[in-house]
Each structure stands twice: as structure tokens, then as C-alpha cells.
Amino acid sequence: MVSYEKTICPYCSCGCGIYLVIEDGKIIGQEPQSDHPVNEGGNCPKGRNAYQFLYSEDRLKTPLIRKNGTLVESTWDEALDLIASKLKEAGKNEFGLLASGKNTNEDAYVLQKFTRVVMGTNNVEYCGRLCHSSTAAGLGPVVGSGVMPISQLDLESADCVFLAGINLKETFPLMARRVMRAKENGAKVIVVDPRRTVTARELGDIHLQLKIGTDVAVINALMKIILDEGLENKEFIESRTTGIDELRKYLSSLSLEELAETCEIPIGTLQEAARCFAKAKTGSVLYNQGVNQHTTGSDAIRALASLALIAGQYGRPGTGLSPTRGQINGEGTGDMGCLNVFYPGFQKVGTGAHEKFEKLWDVENLPAEPGLPYTKMIQQTKYMWIVGTNPMMAAPDVDNVREALKAKEFLVVQDIYLTETAELAHVVLPVATWVEREGIHAYVDRRVQKIEKLIEAPGSAKPDWWVVVEVAERMGYKEKFDFSSPREIFEEIRQVVPPYKGITYERLKEALGGIQWPCPTEDHPGTSTFFTEKFNTPDGLGHLQVVEYRPPAELTDSEYPYFLTTGRTIFHYHTGTMSRRTPKLDSEVSYAQCQINPKDASSENIRNGQKVTLRTRRGSVEAEALISEQVPEGLVFLPFHFSESCANKITNPVLDPTCGMPEYKVCAVKLEVSK
Ligand SMILES: Nc1nc2c(c(=O)[nH]1)N[C@H]1C(S)=C(S)[C@@H](COP(=O)(O)OP(=O)(O)OC[C@H]3O[C@@H](n4cnc5c(=O)[nH]c(N)nc54)[C@H](O)[C@@H]3O)O[C@H]1N2
Ligand SMILES: Nc1nc2c(c(=O)[nH]1)N[C@H]1C(S)=C(S)[C@@H](COP(=O)(O)OP(=O)(O)OC[C@H]3O[C@@H](n4cnc5c(=O)[nH]c(N)nc54)[C@H](O)[C@@H]3O)O[C@H]1N2
Ligand code: SF4
Ligand SMILES: [Mo]
Fold first, then answer.
1. What total number of domains does the chain contain?
2. How far is the CA of 152 from the centre of ligand 3 (A)?
3. pLDDT tens sequence across 91-118
4. Is 630 in the pocket of ligand 1 (CB under 6 A)?
5. Residue 129 CB contacts under 8 Å (≥ 6 apart), including other chains
């Protein structure tokens, strides 16, 4: 029997629709969904090769327990009993849990509830800390909310799109298509990126090719030009913002020449970009890791939001500053409270949230102090449960991560493969993923869509939520985790997370393209545009910010003469677990290529395709040289998808002090031809 079933792509947070062809319980083919509003019949290479990873021979099928130093197969009962008994030994703040951007909302909700109710701590985090923690810290003080304020569909109506530190064509390809459509209607695209990426080449009209780590200087220059030329939106500033006098005063104390020198962009190009953005009717800013992943990421975001405010580019469809969380459920896992300072629904620890949840969950003594952020949790806890994240590749300075994980009293890892992280665990649990279980995700623009269960998981693999319920029961909390299906969990979510109240499984079945939260009632259509009347700040106004430029933490010198930046390529996804098990994706690129400018290659005597060693103050890795004009002189780019060339062996683990974001995007490196 062959059937065609709709689902959503398992990779990025655009949330494109696809059809799967299923024969006798096995997926045998796929095609893009033509009536899905996000992708309208298109899919990128990852989306076109979406399901092969499920059938990789090395999927985990049985729980594993470490015995005499080796991981051996066990039963679920043995593994779950062991976990429960070990976790009972953990002191209150000795335990930490990392959830996943791959979890469904239902999984994420029970994971954080377990951490808070059973373990009594706010030590719960997920990859969002490494992805958009600078957004919460940066946008909170300015507009009071750190989510995308529009619908990705409305990007098409923009007449100026400002792409800051985001390589849209490779990382959100179907959003790039929408920007391409805006261009066809006459929009201008400004790209801020130190590399001449495919996005800068193919989408950009103006490329602000800044010196790495100088976004604050660029944005200050743009705001200064706008104010000096009287291009600001006076009415918007007057009625909807505060702080213009301080901002004006600060910017007038800066010299445009000096700012241009700092960011190494000609004044004329900065003027062209400033005028284009300020004069646009509908100006939209998308930003991502090129802005976030710095010790100054939250600063740059405060400045960017101020830029959008003085230009009056907020509060209408297609406008505003959009953070672009990239994991399939990067938004939802945060919405559910898998962050050390937020209970579900972004109710902040320290503002009485624990008391509210004590009532809602009918429990006592919920933690009222913030927990540890992702990287500190790895270093400072004794007992850890890691669910669907791979810090041995994704966290900075993995040599230190390895030591910390090896020293754990007890480490449980729950994944679909034996990842670099799982190899270090005392117990490894096999889970069902994607269409092997059901549940909802919130995609980049708060678009809530449901994944249906379409096939069986391999071996005895179980959904993430099931594991939590079983452990909670064994630890004496059956009554608080009395869930026998995702639907039951979702019904509780609807009760305690107000923006999800009006969303039901039934509605999601019907709603093509999902429903954007907040959706307060069952007859509410969902909310596409934020801030139409006021911002989410206590006084409803946008708070303009004075932000001073600070250089990155590690600069080049005679020993480490190049800047190293790390990031993504179109064919691979993060730590490679899924895309490298997809033959068509892996055959496109199966090893790390490090981009080196032709002039630098020539001065280091490096030929294209040669093995080079990249050495930083943390250590060294080898990669193949790709001599390319994509990088300017003095800058080297390394993707972080390949364990043999693990980028995070050498990145700088220094954190943005306001939010704990690692500076993945800049450190100093030297290059040598490998012996
Ligand atoms: N193919 C693919 N797509 C993905 C993912 C993936 O792994 N693979 N991951 C998803 C996830 S979770 C995320 S968060 C997104 C990430 O999406 P992006 O943020 O677009 O991806 P990155 O490659 O990390 O970084 C983007 C750009 O930042 C630039 N950059 C580096 N330093 C600076 C700087 O100082 N200033 C500025 N302005 N730019 C700088 C880099 O040159 C790079 O082109 O992608 C999502 N989509
Ligand atoms: N150098 C450098 N490092 C970075 C970045 C960078 O730009 N440069 N970017 C950072 C960013 S933005 C992000 S978002 C992080 C991503 O970091 P991670 O989220 O740690 O990376 P992934 O490879 O996506 O890991 C997801 C894991 O979940 C597993 N998995 C898949 N489906 C399921 C499921 O249903 N359940 C469970 N339990 N597991 C599942 C996968 O096999 C994989 O091991 O990396 C960060 N690290
Ligand atoms: S753009 Fe994202 S969601 Fe769409 S097909 Fe590509 S990876 Fe999948
Ligand atoms: Mo991310």
C-alpha cells in the first residue's frame, strides 16, 4: 500500500511543507508541497533529501548502559531504573538538563517541568543559548520581546531588506526566495557580512563588507547619517520612542570618518545604505549569527533595533527587526521554558513566576533563582541529562567540554545516534524523531505547525516525552506527569502558556501553514504582526539605545595573524548528525573546506585542495584549503559540521557577559600547510 502524507521538513525553521511517499510503513520518496504557503512547491537541497537520515544503519535502537567502561545493550526497564536511582542521589543544583531544538513543544515542556518539579532547579537549557540568547538580552530593553515580529510571508512586500550577519541563501533558502521576489518587485537588499557570500553576490544590491566584529560601528554610522541628513521618521520617533536626545547627542560626538575606518567600509557605501533603509516604505531587518555570536552581540542587537526605530520601520507587516532562530523548534523549545531564566511562556525567574507555577502545577518549592546557562552547566554540574544536543561539537572549546563530561558522576544522553557526546555517557537512550512521533513545533516566525506520526521508530526507540514520564514516575512523581500522549501534554501547555491557548490539534490539522502565536482563543486567527500600536516594554514605547563599539575579545597579532570565523554551508546541518548520514548531501561536500583568500594563500604558500592546519590559542584542526574570493584578505572561514575538523576545538569560549553567548564568530588563527 502506497500513501502520500503531508509533513514539515526536519531541518531549518522556515518550516516548509513536504509530501512523503510511504509504502508498507517505509518512506520511499518525497516531493515538495505545492500548496504550502511557506514554500509553494519549492524545497532546498536538505528539504529535498529530508528522510534518508532516518534509515541510517547506525540509528540507536536499544538503550545502552556503560558496564566496565563499555556501552552495552540493556532493556528500557534497567536503563530507566538506573537513571531514577542515580538522579535521586543528586543534590538540588548538582543536576542540569539540556533539551533540544529538535524536541517538540510537548517534549520540551515535560523536560523543563521535570527539571523544575522533580529536580528542584532551573538548570535547564537548550541550544537557544548558543543561538539567540543575545536576542533576549538585546531586544528586551528596546522593544520588550525577542521573537520575530512579522510573518516571513510578508517579507515579499518589503522595498528594502537589510540582512545583517545572515547568509540567507544557504541557511534559510526558502526565505531567500521570498526576498528574491521582493527584489523582483523593486526592493533593494543590503547585506552586512565580512564575507562575499552567495547571499551578498546574488541577493545584495549594497554589500557592507565590514571588518569582522565591527557591526556596532556600522550601525552607529548608519544612524548618524540618517540623523545628520534629517532622514529619520520624526513622527514615529515622537509618538513611539524615548531616548532620541541621548542618542542624537552620542552620535553627534562620533566622527563618521573614524567609524568608517573602524568598519573598513567607504563612507559613500554607508551613506547609500542608510538612505536606502531610511527612505523605504517597508524596511525589514533580518539578523542572525554574524551579529549574535560575539561578546558584543547583544550590544549590536540593541543598536540594530534602534536603527529600525529611528527609521520608523516597525509595527507594519514586513517591517521590524527579525531574529531568525534556525532550529526546527528553536522558537518552541524556548517558548516552553527550556531556559535557565524563563518558566514556560517567557515568565521570568525572579518575578514571581515560580509562585505562579506552584499554583498551576500544584507543587511546592519551585526554584526561584536562575539556573546555570548551557556552557556553565556543562562545567559545574555533577549529574547531567543531555537530550538532542551535541555539545562535543556545538559548544565552544570542546576539549574542555570532554573533560567536564567525562568527570560527571552520571551522564545520560538521549539521541537518535551515538554522537560524540553520547559516546561519553553512562546511559544512552534511543529516541523516535520527526515523523516517528507526533507533536508541534514553533517555526521561525512563531508559526505553529504539527508533525504527525507516519512511521514506526526503529528497534525499541521511544519519543523523548515518554522517557521523561517514565523517569518521573520512577522518582515518585507519577501524579504530576500523568501523561499518556502528546495531546494530553499539549492540553496542559494550552492551560499554562497563554499565547498557545487558542491553538488545538484539530485546528492545526486544518490550518495550512499553521497558526502564528499569540493565539488567545479558539476562534482567533493567530497574530502575524507585532507592535502595531505599542511595544512590549512596560511603557509601550521603543527605547532607543546608546551603544558604544567594543572590539572582539581576541585580536590578531604576529603569531596568530588571521581572523577565524565559523558557520554553515547549504548542504549540511550543524554537527552533521543528520545531513552527513544523507548520501546525497554528504556526496556534495563530505569534509571541511576552509575558505582562504587567494592573496593569503599565496603568502602562506597554500594551494587549493591542500590540507592545512588551523592553530589558535586553544589547539589545532586540519581542513582542506578552498581558495576563494568569498573571504577577504585576513579572514578564514571554517564550517562547524565536520567532527574530523571540529571547529569548536579552536574557537574562543569567551562569553558575552550579558547573556552567555560564546564568541564563535571571531578568534585569531595561524595557518600552516599540514605535514
Ligand atoms: N544549511 C544550514 N542551514 C541552517 C543551519 C545549518 O546548520 N545549515 N542551521 C540553522 C540555525 S540553528 C541557525 S541559528 C541559522 C544560522 O544562520 P546564519 O546566521 O545565516 O549562519 P552562519 O553561517 O552561522 O552565519 C551567517 C554569516 O555571518 C557572517 N559573519 C561572521 N562574522 C560576522 C560579523 O562580525 N558581522 C556580520 N555582520 N556578519 C558576520 C558569516 O560570514 C556568515 O556568512 O541557520 C539555520 N539554517
Ligand atoms: N563554531 C560554531 N559553533 C556553533 C555555531 C556556530 O555558528 N559556530 N552555532 C550554534 C547554534 S546557532 C546552534 S543552534 C547550535 C546547534 O547545536 P546542537 O543543537 O547541539 O546541534 P545539532 O547537530 O542540531 O544537534 C541536535 C542533536 O539532536 C539529535 N536529534 C535529532 N532529532 C532528535 C529527536 O527527536 N530527539 C532527540 N533527543 N535528539 C534528536 C541529532 O542527532 C543531534 O545529535 O550550535 C552552535 N554552535
Ligand atoms: S528552507 Fe529549511 S525548511 Fe525549507 S526545505 Fe530547506 S531546510 Fe527545509
Ligand atoms: Mo541556531
1. 4
2. 13
3. 989 999 999 999 999 999 999 999 999 9
4. no
5. 339, 373, 374, 375, 660, 661
Looking at the structure, tell me whether residues 428 and 482 fall in a common domain: yes
- The answer to whether residues 34 and 72 belong to one domain is no
Pocket of ligand 3 (CB under 6 A): 9, 11-12, 14-16, 39, 43-44, 46-47, 173-174
Could you count the other beta carbons within 10 Å of the beta carbon of residue 382? 16
Measured CA distances, 552 to 293, 295, 394, 565 (Å): 11, 7, 20, 12
pLDDT digits (tens, 9 = 90+) for 645-671: 999 999 999 999 999 999 999 999 999
Here the CATH number for the domain that contains residue 432 is 3.40.50.740
Q: Residue 591 is which amino acid?
A: Y
- What pTM value is reported for the model? 0.97
Task: Decide if 532 is inside a domain.
Answer: no
Task: Provide residues with CB under 6 Å of ligand 2.
Answer: 100-102, 127, 130-131, 289, 293, 326-327, 387-390, 394, 414-417, 419, 431, 433, 464, 566-567, 574-575, 577, 640, 647-648, 651, 664
592 and 489 within one domain: no
67: exposed, middle or buried (C-beta count within 10 Å: 0-12, 13-18, 19+)?
exposed
- Could you tell me if 261 and 372 lie in one domain? no
Residue 531 lies in a domain: no
CATH for 188: 3.40.228.10
DSSP alpha helix (H) spans, 231-317: 234-240, 244-252, 256-263, 267-279, 289-292, 297-310
Q: Which of 653, 658, 665, 138 is nearest to 375 (CA)?
A: 653
